[in-house]
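Bumping with the actual sequence this time:
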Amino acid sequence: MEEIKSILRDRFQKGDMTNEQYKSVCGSQIDPDDVKKYWEM
């Protein structure tokens, strides 16, 4: 499961997923607003 979350976090950081999609996978464990996008780094 952690590997899947890592892959999806990478996709989210690239902008390939919306906040809602990311929340549906990770639930309340990780707030999408706390994840930096690649272009914000």
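The tokens above came from a reply further down the thread. DSSP finds two helices and no strands in the chain.
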